[in-house]
Amino acid sequence: MTAQIISGTEIRKAILGEIKEEVDQMKEKHGKVPGLVTILVGSSPASISYVTLKVKTAISLGFHEIQDDQPEDISEKDLLALIDKYNNDPDIHGILVQLPLPKHIDDKKVLNAINPDKDVDAFHPVNVGRLMIGGDEVKFLPCTPAGIQEMIVRSGTETSGAEVVVVGRSNIVGKPIAMMMAQKGVGANATVTIVHTRTKDLASHCKRADILVVAAGVPDLVKPEWIKPGATVIDVGVNRVGMNEQTGKAILKGDVDFDAAKEIAGKITPVPGGVGPMTIAMLMKNTLRSAKLSLGID
Ligand code: GUN
Fold first, then answer.
1. Closest residue (by CA) to atom 11 of ligand 1?
2. Which domains does the chain have, with CATH numbers?
3. Is the dihedral of CA 168, 171, 177, 181 positive or negative?
4. What is the pLDDT of residues 254-292, one digit of tens each?
């Protein structure tokens, strides 16, 4: 039987609708809206397109949005001063510095300069530590893992006691999603295994998974025979495998052989239209949360 497709595009729409409602209520009751600043250094086309989408989404939700573009040659000192300015701006609840930064800037220094309570990417070590502790300690979840967890929950996948196998150990996806799913709580309480490039037998681990999360960055890495029948498969891979000559757009492929996998999995995310669209929605959710925390209403 063909798997149920978990559409990130549809879930994002629902989440943005929920956020908009809360923003409207916040404005009415408290005379405030969430404030987000996006800082883009330089003019990489990929970064421009990501930031443009973030800005558009924030504006569509009624956020106070500042798009603070900076030249490629801004000094590290000036960038740190800019972050300090927004750290002290009461109308700004979220600070997003688009990565990657130019080589002359130490990105770790920049990310660590963001006030952890405005770190809506959840990249600051304080937020990574809060995630590790779990429970009430957590202010923001990193956006892509948070999107993955939302998709798992909203697709009705049982996580409690489930075998979750995470392929990939990056700081942005693999490690945090594994930690989140092993915690107590909704969309969690799972038994989690992380596998990676040095794992001896990837296939045998994947075959055990009730929920398989693949964030390896290798097109078609996961073969259909590695998937347990009925499993939920979350494909985080976004691999550019060519160019559509007619549209001029990149051809994207996930880390899972989707066409074959959908005949075995119970639920599966497509690429594109799966995890990708969720990330910005979760960034908006974090910014709303930050605004609520600052107003003492969360
Ligand atoms: N560059 C690519 N993805 C991201 C992201 O999620 N956050 C930031 N800040 N930069 C990025």
1. 99
2. 31-118 (3.40.50.10860), 142-278 (3.40.50.720)
3. positive
4. 999 999 999 999 999 999 999 999 999 999 999 999 999
